[in-house]
Amino acid sequence: MAVVPIWPNIAMHTATTLRTVLLGLLASIVVSLPLAMLIASSRTVSAAIYPLLVLTQSVPKVALAPILLVALGANEFSRVIITFLVAFFPLVVSSVAGLLATPPELIELGRSCRANRVQELLRIRLPYALPFVFGGLRVAAALCVVGAVVAEFVGADTGLGYLIQTSMAFFRTPVAFGAVVILAIMGIALFQLVEVTERLLVPWSSNLEKNSNEEN
Hints:
The protein is built from nine helices and no strands. By secondary structure, the protein is mostly helical.
């Protein structure tokens, strides 16, 4: 109930964090899908890019965030970059796994129809990989909330991460706890939104998941 008297302030911070989360998630999708197709299309490219991706994930984002904020400035762009760095890797890995998991029979069928490499990638591998892509997207959506809060902890003057930090500095624990609850709700809502979108766009994925569970 401690958050009720200051709900306009809470709403403002929530809107700021949600904007950073959505922009970070959008950046993850825009970068990860082409990157995954590039990795899946060539073993040479995969061998060159994968170590760099693993390197980006080996560096703790909490340690990297202050450096990025100094380099890029304490603004929305740097917070979106930090959110993107936290979230994009699972999406890339899942998408590559889906693209490479296409049954050889489908690949042979496409080649027998004289499909070139781009057509094979876009018309055969990508549709088959969509359930994998959405699996990575669910993880990325939850991680975007974490990334946005990390960025706001380090350098922001608004947002739920900033609100938690300033509230704890003045021992306003109920406000900080309320912000944490809102962040949890935000993560769950984004996860469910991705799941609903998957059911609408890729309805066969639920059947694949059901068959997989029955086999196990």
